[in-house]
Design brief:
The protein is an alpha/beta fold and 379 residues long. The protein is built from eleven helices and twelve strands. β8, α10 and β9 form a beta-alpha-beta unit.
């Protein structure tokens, strides 16, 4: 398949999965005279493990097993940042070598160059990479702000095509996970009433390509939901958490909703094809559910159905679904919700900071603010 796609010439073998190799080495590793914990252990178990190590021991593990430590829910946040810097640096070296690997086709060499430049960008001073896995299309998560001291935490869950190469963009900046999260973070700081915030660009699941059949099914959303539940459950502190789920990301959030921890106060979906639910009650969550859609978003024309694994259920912006309906203002198309200056972004930031009585409701909705006794779409 890789040969057909132009990644490799017929003489070459597919590149090994470096993450799996490192996991194998971790399973055989030791520290302080004892074995290393199961990477699939609960975040609480992993937190206890790292708490029992010295700073020097933690750093040695991060340097020796960067992809493992950098992706462990429950590992100290600062240690994950450090580990992922090690992992990114190693990935830059590997992709630079692949750029000149004669066993690769020209297409594969160019792709290696694109990856190398993406990793170099992610290594820029001050960036806080919470998760990084370069295998396949890749996964990543990045934090804006101080995650450990924030009063409020927002998690941006993007949709299709959210691999490493699309983690950030120059053109269409605010349609990519990093741009979405940065815009939301800046807007939250502008509207926050004395509270500190942190925002996570969470592209740490295998999102489907936009042209693939998987984009019309919930299979990848189900696997992504499991990862989202684990990630939110491992967040430090006790800050309230809001999820901002765009497009296919709203399917992930919908599937995850019933299993999310109680600290999740709000789930906002933008440009949603559905949440695999018939209404808010079907989500099984105590979080407030918000929905927003631009007037010219093509997602409105997608059939809202659910037949076995195909489709995502009821349209979240219909009154019968029961979500609180927010105004998108002048947001354009399917990817304009996080554009600075738009009403849609301000509304999302108000939800993220808890200033929910100041939101602008969708046209025709009398009230959507939860503390207003006249709210017409209470959850």
């Amino acid at each position: 398949m890789l040969v057909t796609a132009g990644w490799l010439s017929s003489r070459a073998e597919p590149r090994p999965d470096v993450y799996e190799q490192e996991l194998g080495a971790w399973e055989d590793g030791h520290v302080a005279g004892g074995p290393l914990p199961d990477p699939d252990a609960s975040p609480a178990r992993l937190t206890d493990f790292f708490a029992g190590l010295s700073v020097a021991q933690q750093r040695r593990l991060a340097e020796r097993y960067p992809l493992v430590v950098g992706n462990l829910d429950g590992a100290p946040v600062q240690l994950r940042y450090l580990a992922n810097r090690y992992g990114l640096a190693e990935a830059v070296v590997a992709e630079r070598a692949r750029m000149n690997d004669e066993r690769l086709s020209p297409t594969g060499q160019r792709e290696a160059g694109r990856r190398m430049h993406r990793y170099e960008s992610m290594l820029s001073e001050g960036r806080q990479i919470l998760a990084f896995d370069p295998t396949g299309r890749g996964r990543a998560a990045e934090v804006m702000g101080d995650l450990e001291s924030a009063d409020r935490i927002s998690v941006v869950v993007p949709g299709v095509d959210s691999g490493l190469l699309n983690f950030e963009r120059t053109a269409g900046r605010y349609s990519a996970p990093v741009g979405m999260a940065q815009a939301l973070y800046d807007e939250e700081r502008a509207v926050a009433d004395g509270e500190s915030t942190a925002v996570i660009a969470w592209a740490d699941y295998d999102a489907p390509p936009s042209i693939a059949m998987s984009a019309a099914t919930a299979e990848l959303a189900t696997a992504g939901a499991d990862r989202l539940v684990d990630a939110v459950g491992a967040l430090p502190g006790d800050a309230r958490v809001a999820l901002f789920c765009h497009s296919y990301g709203s399917v992930v959030c919908g599937v995850a909703a019933a299993e999310l921890p109680g600290r999740v106060s709000d789930i906002a979906v933008a440009g949603s094809p559905g949440m695999r639910a018939s209404d808010v009650g079907d989500l099984g969550t105590t979080a407030r559910v918000w929905a927003i859609r631009a007037n010219d978003d093509w997602i409105e024309d997608v059939p809202h159905m659910e037949i076995g694994p195909i489709g995502f259920g009821q349209d979240p912006v219909t009154p019968d679904f029961g979500a609180r309906l927010l105004s998108a203002g002048g947001a354009e198309g399917h990817s304009g919700y996080f554009t600075p200056g738009e009403t849609s972004l301000t509304n999302l930031a108000l939800v993220g900071t808890g200033e929910v009585n100041d939101v602008t409701c969708a046209p025709g909705v009398l009230s959507c603010a939860p503390l207003d006794p006249c709210a017409s779409h209470a959850t």
